[in-house]
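Readers of this paper often ask what the protein records in our data store actually look like. Such a record has a labelled line for the sequence and another for the backbone structure tokens. Nothing more is needed to write down the fold, since each code stands for a local backbone conformation. The remainder of this section carries one protein's record, kept here as part of the documentation.
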Amino acid sequence: MNAQTEVLQIPGPSGSLEVAVDRPSVDPIGTAVIAHPHPLFGGTMSNKVVQTLARAFVQCGWTSVRFNFRGVGASAGVHDEGRGELDDLLTVVESFAPQGRLSLAGFSFGAFVTSHATERLHAQREIDRLVLVGTAASRFQVANVPEELHLRTLVIHGEQDDTVPLASVMDWARPQTLPVLVVPAGGHFFHGQLPLLRDLVTRHLSA
């Protein structure tokens, strides 16, 4: 985490949630809420892909809000297979972005949870940008992206992801005609390619 990162505790659905906030040096465009990978396999808000997403948003003028799902780090509660984690994410959105411009992003399990948060929130408010990285489509029932959000959505996947096969993401995306940006030779955690990942996200945010 950056020296400027503000770490907070907020009330959550099953106790307190640990949150990390990074702010741009200018007046923020809006708030981006970013969800981390699977809690039972070491996923936390300090994951390098999650931090890369946060840096990209801050670089483009957004306030970045990462958080630990229930049972992770200093967040209370126990893992709930995505159901409670969706409630956690929606609570963070309500706490930090009850109004104004909102973007959502998630990595792996976090992308799965973010897809369902998008589905829930889309009927209530506008979502400015959606970024899904390493979407865990082989392991969970990922929600479809509303058609109106397709041009605002960036789906990134590594060609050689051995945790979530690219084919499973294409099977999810194909019926929606949702484009997927494939990083050649990329693995699930984008080792050695995090600067490229950051640049791809900033390009999307600046478009």
Remarks:
- The domain at 6-206 is CATH 3.40.50.1820 (Rossmann fold).
- The first strand starts at residue 6 and ends at 12.
